[in-house]
Amino acid sequence: MCARCGxxxxxxxxxxxxxxxxxxxxxxxxxxxxxxxxxxxLSPEHTDDPQTQETALAWSIIAMxxxxxxxxxxxxxxxxxxxxxxxxxxxxxxxxxxxxVRYHPEEYESALAGMPSARRRVTExxxxxxxxVRNRMGYYADHADFVxxxxxxxxxxxxxxxxxxxxxxxxxxxxxxxxxxxAWEMSRYWAYQDHLAGHAVGETFELAAGFLTLASSIHAx
Length: 221
Description:
By secondary structure, this protein is mainly α. It has helices at 21-31, 50-69, 79-103, 105-113, 117-136, 143-146, 179-195, 201-220, and strands spanning 147-148, 165-166.
């Protein structure tokens, strides 16, 4: 149901709260709190103050770039640190994605519309797969369950983190979720299997960060 008018609608994306851009804009105007401050930056998708949203988005883009950039700098032999950086990269990429989808859907769609159809399917599938990782990594599965360290030139498991690959995962148990929740999670699971499993971690984050940077630049323009 639309959070503004109560109308039933079929969401185009899992984060959709409104049936139309008009309802989204109207809801934001009705719920703006001029006293909100940048204290909400750590959860930019949860604030409705437009000025705070802009600051949070810009800050989150910077944090995302810095985190994904660390994939090529952390030593692969430091396993705990390597897995922690991958987990942090997943978190930042998906939070920036959620912020753009919720508050700037026109710019997000514009960035997707400018892609060839095959590239768009890969991009959307990659983000759905990353949402699956975000929802389960650290809660239902360990970081190491998702990622396979790569073999370096010397034959040891010391390949750069960006060359590590996503593992194939078994279907998740979803009995505790309602039918709609099960459908969402299975769609994410299959997206993970199709677009992440077997692919290099660096390849995934390069695609995701590149698209989000593009979408945010459209918004800034």
